[in-house]
Design a protein that fits this description.
By secondary structure, this protein is α+β, with helices and mostly antiparallel strands. The chain contains two helices and 15 strands. It has a domain of 133 residues: Immunoglobulin-like.
């Protein structure tokens, strides 16, 4: 007579197989759970469009050499003959034109403001603050044919307008001029009285076409 429980060895084998299947299913589920919980990764490329700037530093030198509109060839310092025009004085200061003449054999452009400061005799130590930019004239792209000129006007306030304790007046030897968007200066003899302390005595206009003041 056959027992209702069957062959014990068969039962144990079946149980083992069921255990293996269950374990396999558990492992598979665990693996799926682990992989689904991993964060997705992606690479994002950000392209920044550069913007042009020409901030004036403490020396009066523009910090950028590429602020002219795209496609324009800027006039290098070596391509320019830089001179001082006839000053226009008033009670309390002068307006000093700075003339930029294209001395090269090809057209070039000027755009924006020159960097200007008063300095001592060599080694050309800066005296006081560099010129701030004046908004009295519009900023335009000036194209200079060979021999053509453009002008910027430097306003120099006399040191006598300030108290000696505030200004500490001193006589300069040169006007240091960086053409717009250039980092090589020229030095023009200028013996204006200025302030050695941080008093704003200089301002400069944007370049305009022509050699007039």
């Amino acid at each position: 007579m056959t027992s209702g429980t069957g062959n014990p060895r068969v039962g144990r084998a079946a149980g083992v197989r069921v255990g293996w299947v269950a374990a396999a299913l558990i492992c598979a589920g665990a693996a799926a759970g682990c992989s689904s919980s991993s964060p997705a990764t992606s690479t994002v490329t950000v392209t920044a469009t550069p913007t042009a700037s020409a901030a004036v530093t403490g020396t009066g030198a523009p910090t950028s050499t590429s602020t002219s509109p795209a496609g324009a060839a800027a006039c290098a310092t070596s391509a320019l003959h830089v001179t001082q025009g006839t000053p226009q004085g008033y009670a309390g200061g002068i307006y000093q034109p700075i003339i930029f003449t294209n001395a090269s054999g090809a057209s070039c452009t000027l755009y924006g403001y020159p960097g200007v400061s008063l300095v001592s005799a060599p080694p050309y130590t800066q005296i006081g603050l560099a010129a701030k930019r004046s908004s009295t004239t519009p900023v335009k792209l000036i194209t200079l044919a060979p021999g053509a000129a453009a002008t910027s006007v430097v306003h120099i306030v006399d040191a006598g307008n300030f108290s000696p304790s505030t200004c500490s007046p001193v006589k300069a030897a040169y006007l240091r001029v960086y053409p717009p968007n250039q980092t090589v200066p020229v030095y023009l003899a200028n013996t204006s009285q200025t302030c050695s302390k941080p008093v704003q005595t200089l301002s400069v206009s944007a370049v305009q076409a022509g050699s007039g003041g």
